[in-house]
Amino acid sequence: MKHIIVGTAGHVDHGKSTLIKALTGRETDNLAEEKERGISINLGFTYFDLPSKTRVGIVDVPGHERFIKNMLSGASGLDIVLLIIAADEGVMPQTIEHVDILSFLNIPKGIVVLTKCDDVDEEILELVKEDVKDHLKNTFLENAPIVEVDSITRRGLDLLVETLDKMEEEVPEKNNEAPSRMNIDRVFTLKGIGTVVTGTLTEGTLNKEDEYYLYPQEHPIKIRSIQVHGEDKNKAYAGQRVAFNIPGIPVSELKRGDIIAAKNSLEKTRMIDVKISLTDHSPNKVKHWD
Questions:
Q1: Which end of the chain is more exposed for a tag (fewer CB within 10 A), N or C?
Q2: Integer angstrom CA distances of residue 174 from 2, 143, 152, 203, 215
Q3: Judgement on whether residues 59 and 76 belong to the same structural domain of the protein
Q4: For the chain, how many structural domains are there in total?
Q5: Least reliable range by pLDDT among 39-43, 76-80, 194-198
Q6: Does 150 score more than 90 pLDDT?
Q7: DSSP characters for 114-171?
Q8: pLDDT above 70 for 73
Q9: For the stretch 190-209, what's the b/e string if a residue is b when 16 or more beta carbons lie within 10 angstroms of its beta carbon?
Q10: Which residue among 170, 188, 214 closes a domain?
């Protein structure tokens, strides 16, 4: 089975989590504060299968500006992004900010999803579509398909799935033969189990009971158990969302951004090459040192 990772992006309260629930039947807002406030705070994860049998791992990111770090963590490593824009509000500040971030992360392709389309008339909807096209000029989403949906009435959801299914054909197969590598995006403890980490397996495979290394600490770890989309597995493959239990390491010694990888597959360095890009609407300028 082929595995791809699809993420959401867009302004707060534009219907990202509601759309994902409509597509998968599962909620990604699990924190009590998220349910109370009606907005996503942390990253949410779920999955569903396309008609082509490809399994889509979903990363639902928060849209609020206060949680932009969480959004940045979730957006890295996506194969396809769903840029969510509410038809009753149109392009908003976090819409633009998220497009900038996605561009910097070199996300290869995406679909623009207009939500809440049943809340506006056709004339307004056409004006919003034209405004969206204007704002996305000279971005990687300039020629992206625009799909009109309503998550409550389920308008356009079949077309969205069909569009996603067609686009995933262009996503290359992941490399299961490369050394294992996974960036941690969540760390927590479960009573009776211990430390659990989650992330998207970028390359290679992970096997239950095998030894790997935690970087940059260069600390050996052993995987006690593996779950993929809530199911116990003995092995995880590149492109899958993975959660696993690592005994003997307290949560305080782990953080988002740490890497689980094969032994001797990574090296520390004191020097990096950096390419700095500014958005077209940035007020700042890049200057050479004198």
A1: C
A2: 8, 25, 35, 7, 22
A3: yes
A4: 2
A5: 39-43
A6: yes
A7: EE-GGGS-HHHHHHHHHHHHHHTTTSTTTT--EEE-BTTTTBTHHHHHHHHHHHGGGS
A8: no
A9: eeeebbbbbbbbbbbbbebe
A10: 170
Query: CA 254 to CA 277: how far, in whole Å?
Result: 30
Which residue range is the domain that position 264 belongs to? 174-290
- When pLDDT is cut at 50, 70 and 90, the band that residue 38 belongs to is very low
Show contacts of 273-278: CB within 8 Å, 24+ apart: 277/103, 277/104
Residues 148 and 181 in one domain: no
Please check the confidence at residue 79 and state whether its pLDDT lies above 50.
yes
Answer yes or no: do 135 and 25 share one domain: yes
Rounded mean pLDDT of the chain? 85
24 and 111 co-located in one domain: yes
Structural tokens at position 284:
């700042």
157 token code pair: 């959801």
Same domain, 46 and 116: yes
Q: Is residue 128 over pLDDT 60? A: yes
Domain end marker among 170, 195, 230: 170
CB atoms within 10 A of CB 33: 10
